[in-house]
Structure prediction request, 163 residues.
Amino acid sequence: MKKGATFDSSFWVHAVYLDLVDFLLSDFELFCARAVEKELGRDNPTSLRLKALLAERGIKQAAPKSEKIRLYGDGERSAINLALERKLLLLIDDWRPYEAAQAAGVEVVNSLAYLVGLYQQKRVTPERALSALVRITRRGTLRPEWIQSAVRIVSAIRRKGEN
Prediction:
């Protein structure tokens, strides 16, 4: 049985941008908070991909029943609360909500950690992993510390593989 996971809009945007969605669908039973869907808008590539997967039931729509976490935007707050209620993995790229969710006891993963995991499992090539890191660096939407950490880990795995 696949592990359950939910995501915030920042993670979803990066997952679509880095072409990670098919891996996510393979690895997890995905739940999308309604507030996240709303936050993504209507007519852009990331929201259209999500809407198609919701229509196909590849991703299930959900909403938290209560709000233990009351900070942050609607999407982040809803995703964190859904993860808390259902004990789901939270896929999130906004660092403050990431840290708040972690402090509340939620298991969290950002898109770069997920990408590095795919590389570690040999599910993506070194070239694809490094290319994704370059693309996300140029985009400038993730914490530089997260990017630097991902680059260090990918480099270490590559060196280890060469020895």
In short: DSSP finds nine helices and five strands in the chain. The radius of gyration is 16 Å. The chain has a mean pLDDT of 90. The CA atoms of residues 86 and 132 lie 31 Å apart.
